[in-house]
Amino acid sequence: MTPHTPVFCSIVPPHLLEHLARSSNPAVAATARRTLVADASARTFRVLPLPGTAPTLAPAETGRPHRTVHDCERGTVLPGVKVRGEGEEATGDATVNRAYAGLGATFDLFMNAFGHDSIDGSGLPLIASVHYDENYGNAFWNGEQMVFGDGDDEIFLDFTLPVDVIGHELAHGFTQYSANLEYFSQSGALNESVSDVFGSLVKQYALGQTAEQADWLIGEGLFHPNVEGTALRSMKAPGTAYDDDVLGKDPQPGHMDDYVRTGRDNGGVHINSGIPNHAFYLAATELGGNAWERAGRIWYDVMTGGTLTPEARFSEFAAATVAAAKARYGDGEEIQAVLKAWAAVGVPTD
Fold first, then answer.
1. What 3-state DSSP class applies to 118?
2. By three-state DSSP, how is residue 178 classified?
3. How far is it, in rounded angstroms, from Cα 138 to Cα 130?
4. For the chain: N or C, fewer Cβ within 10 A?
């Protein structure tokens, strides 16, 4: 892959949508199949300017967000009709306003906690499109912008509801512009894990939560109340996020002993991300306090340090976190917390 290669990354993994597509509930199955078709199309699509519009330019003022939210009006043409720009008043559409706020919350974490100006470090404008397609059950980053579905109101609610979903998808852009981890096998699982890490940090930063106060759930509030599940994934306890007759059971492992070898989902990128996810949770809670201040800083240093290869495996990433902890904090409790965390999930650091 060349530097900054864009890739389609969605919050709901294909294996889950494929499971729903086989549901005995005709409405659930039809919506899942429609979402899978839309995802397949979106993977090959790039954002094009609307006729008569100029491309969005980076803002002259650095260190501030530059957000634009569009409405797809339940179609699939991106970016859609512009409905809210930076600094404009809230609209009467709660979905638009949540997307705008979530873009801002993500910008705030990267800028205020890490001094990183937008997701590329250089003030990249943040673009989002809402009301994508009919009953679309996903949200994705396509290499250039965020896209949100409204959900089917059977399994999924509006995808702008959990702020960590917005943070997760924008963090794929952060990875795209930093370590550029290849979206396959272990490097792909790391790509997904980094998005879960920073998505969770966006939520914690916005709510002012410490590592101990955080729920460490990804997508909490996304499921319909009738679904037996709390979220799409749990960093605290991988494999426990949902166990539902329609959805099935959360397949994420939390240890290398249970690593899933599969040809689906780009080699299990959404499944095996549970292992590095749990390592981050363990390091952050061992250190305590605000997770973005030390554990988050170590992961950020790894992503921006230029030492990772795009094909990095778990052990390479783990070793990089140890080196980053030592470089920033010396031989204190930070490096011990990182070593302990990776050992607990069965990933070697040397």
1. coil
2. coil
3. 11
4. C
Please say if 4 is a catalytic residue. Answer: no
154-190 per-position pLDDT tens digit: 999 999 999 999 999 999 999 999 999 999 999 999 9
Cα separation, 253 vs 280, whole angstroms: 14
How large is the C-alpha radius of gyration of the chain? 19
- Which residue in 169, 182, 220, 286 is the catalytic one? 169
CB 344 within 8 A of CB 284: no
Angstrom distance (rounded) from CA 141 to CA 171 = 9
Distance in angstroms (rounded) separating the CA atoms of residues 243 and 240: 7
- Catalytic entry in 270, 278, 316, 334: 270
Residue 132 contacts residue 95 (beta carbons within 8 Å): no
Q: What are phi and psi of 40, to 5 degrees?
A: -60, -40
Residue 130 pairs in a beta bridge with 71
Judged by DSSP in three states, 333 sits in: helix
| φ, ψ for residue 163, nearest 5 deg | -65, -25
d(CA 62, CA 256): 42
Tell me how far apart the alpha carbons of residues 199 and 165 are, in angstroms, rounded to a whole number: 6
The answer to whether 169 is a known catalytic residue is yes
pTM of the model: 0.94
